[in-house]
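Batch manifest line 420
LIGAND: calcium ion
JOB: complex structure
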Amino acid sequence: MKRVLLLLPTTGYRNEDFLAAAKKLGVEIVAAANYCHQPAPSWGLAPIMALHFDRPEQAADTVLREIGGNLDAVLAVDDSGVELAALLSERLGLPGNPAQAVRRVRDKLAFRQLLREREFLCPEFHHLPTGEDPRKLFPELKFPVVVKARRLSASRGVIRVDDFEELMRAVNWVRAIQSRADRDARDLGLIMESFIPGSEYALEGSLERGELTTLALFDKPDPMDGPHFEETLYITPSRLPEALQDCIHEEVARACRVAGLAAGPVHAEVRVNDQGVWILEVAARSIGGLCGRVLTRSLGMSLEELILRQVVAEEPLTIAGEGGAAGVMMIPIPRRGIYHGLEGLDAAQSVSGVTGVAITVEPGQIIAPPPDGATYLGFIFARAASPADAEMALRIAHRRLHFDIRPEYPAMEAPAAERH
Ligand code: ADP
Ligand code: CA
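JOB STATUS: finished
ARTIFACT:
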């Protein structure tokens, strides 16, 4: 029986999907998680259940000490664990990406430097170290500019600004977001880059011995012009002309090569305009949230199963699923507040083409849209004969959902004496 170490984030969306795939394939899972290092030991959990995924060197030492070898692969369920998974694979001599390559693509500044060096289309960018006054960079900036945290995801800490005043506000805001979300915020600083106009696409792919296979190319039909960049619709297959789709595949494949990524899942985002294909991001992981479920029918298996099979299979995988179009909507968060519940779930689920609605927040949970929030409200899935029909089904279903989100603090009522 194959044995795989799985890095399970405590707040992961896909832990169950990975565990179900392992069960189906008869793969033994050794679980490692990032439960809080103080409660975990008092709950009687083993040291590998209290790993700091964001301290890969130290976490790798703990894993190696506790479980030794005897593994066939190390996999991370999501972005938080990819560096640690790569480092462990490297140290154990298992297949995977070089840790240094994974680290580089996760750092938005280092990745831009790489793209510029290797002559990709690349926006102008500047590093803004912590404590440095952004006014120093004013003479060099051409608006619109995008201010970003260095290694967050899901558009957290990403803001477009059109003038100096907005820039000053955004810098403070993004600095605050990053220092709450990343322990290394002080050392990282921010990145500012020029805004690339155009339409956006996402490529879900898989690398095997350095060769990229595109599993799906998604159109993102809602314009992403900012100032905040909430993800909404992903529709596949893409409606772009074949030649342009090939071009996207080639650019992403080249970016993986120059970055040194050679194995496992890839999620890339690109913008396309008159000048060509601009790589926004290449991540050594699969698509986030529950979005991967949109591909189950076209892959003929879950994305998690495909990822697992790839590390345990002796032969190359053949993918044989159904044709047709599919789409997923990451349900936009209408406002910041406490989620109380929703209406219209049955009505949304009954829309022709809609295959499921998954609500992933719990009543009582605080939610916020980007650039602050890090939680999804939920997902709507659709399948249809054409991409346009899949998109329409998602839009109709979404209109039927009504979320009850209330302010965190009830508005103060003025004292009686002041009321007239
Ligand atoms: P994250 O890792 O949080 O997804 P990204 O760098 O991918 O961060 O940015 C999130 C979104 O912000 C992108 O999908 C895109 O819509 C927008 N964006 C980021 N950088 C730029 C840019 N330079 N020009 C235009 N849009 C951008
Ligand atoms: Ca992104």
